[in-house]
Amino acid sequence: MLRDNMVKVVVNGVGTIGKRVAEAVKKQDDMELYGLSDVSASGGLRTVLSEDGALHKTSLYGSSEDGVENLREDGMHVEGVLEDVLGEVDVVVDCTPPGIDEKNKENLYEPNDVKAIFQGGAPKDIAPVAFNADANYEEAEGEDFVKVVSCNTTSLSRTMSAVDENFGVEHAVASLVRRGGDIPQDGRGPINSTVPVTEVPSHHGPDVQAVMPDLDIKTLAVKVPVTYGHVHMVNVELEQEANEEEVLEAFEEQPRVSLVSAGDGYDSTGKIHERMRDLHSERSDMHEAAVWEETVTVENGTLYWIHMVHQEAIVVPDNVDAIRAMFELEDKDTSIKKTNDAVRIKSVP
Ligand SMILES: NC(=O)c1ccc[n+]([C@@H]2O[C@H](COP(=O)([O-])OP(=O)(O)OC[C@H]3O[C@@H](n4cnc5c(N)ncnc54)[C@H](OP(=O)(O)O)[C@@H]3O)[C@@H](O)[C@H]2O)c1
């Protein structure tokens, strides 16, 4: 039950995902960013709250008494401890590191009867719904706890749901080339290796099945020393016949998949990164999964394509849609459109 017309949102854990989700929430006309919560003042937190930062003047809470103390020692203005204001909040978007999320559910959200959204690193059983707006928006309607799936799973769910809805997926295999770390994660490098996930198939296939239980998919994965973007090479045995034009059209119609052309000069993740910089996309973020149109190929009933995923940005719109679904504010298509318009998805040429 909402306290007034605007959903009051707190983002707990203001790192790579949290700061982006907070900014996206602030851009919605049916949500209010009630506050932020963290345990220490990283450079990122200081920047977004500074006079020139996008979250300037947003109330900051410590997510524990120790957190309040640390933040104050770090020179931050802190309103108090998160738990004291949870009675005034409708939902917490938890963007804390894996392991902290489940403790927060047990110690903060459940006892204070507040809804919460968790991220891809949280355990499978943290919420009854593994969420991707395109694939299963309705399943989150009315729920108290929802997990927005990881960046890899989000891109596979978007592309696979487009293919499955139009042509049916008999069986899919995806090979994932994953970025080694995000830009600020310099503790993960310098590195000069390609590291395979030696568990085959990798966990990413079952992660997609948490969203699309009937999908027959296997995945393999390696990690490489880049910071901007995963690349997925996918092949799908189709249930129905399709040609390349029809598949391109299905991707084109998917509200969070973009087609990019190597022939137009976007023939690498680096060049797509540069494109987002040239377009003045905030932080050079790309919220869509970008399918290289030349790679879309159909041969003897098997469909092939390659797409890239900007890992830091792709889950942000799904967090916003998860909020609308949990409060049953809008249907799927309306929510996706509202979010896309507010964060400029597909309005970037
Ligand atoms: N990064 C990605 O590309 C990506 C993509 C999709 C999904 N995800 C998922 O999103 C979640 C967050 O990842 P992230 O990359 O955003 O992590 P991150 O950059 O490390 O940010 C986590 C934030 O939470 C803070 N924090 C730590 N303990 C806390 C606590 N007890 N209460 C409140 N805040 C706390 C951290 O503060 P300190 O820095 O002081 O520890 C940091 O500011 C994970 O589940 C991850 O798997 C990440």
CATH superfamily of the largest domain: NAD(P)-binding Rossmann-like Domain
Main-sheet strand order equals 4-3-2-1-5-6-8-7
CATH level-3 fold name of the largest domain: Rossmann fold
Please, what is the average pLDDT? 96
Structural domains: how many: 2
User: What is the CA-atom radius of gyration, in angstroms?
Assistant: 20 Å
Q: Strand share of the residues?
A: 15-25%
Q: Tell me the quaternary state.
A: single chain
Please write the string of helix (H) and strand (E) elements.
Answer: EHEHEHEEHEEHEHEEHEEHEHEEEHH
What ligands can be seen in this structure? Answer: NADP nicotinamide-adenine-dinucleotide phosphate
Unreliable sequence segments: none
CATH class of the largest domain: Alpha Beta
Indicate the structural class.
alpha/beta
Could you walk me through the main structural features you see in this protein, from its secondary elements to its overall organization?
With 349 residues, the chain is of the alpha/beta class. Helix content is 31%, strand content 24%. It has eleven helices and 16 strands. The protein has an eight-stranded parallel sheet with strand order 4-3-2-1-5-6-8-7, sandwiched between helices. Helix 1 links the parallel strand 1 and strand 2 (31-38). The longest helix is centred in the middle third of the chain and has 17 residues, at 151-167.
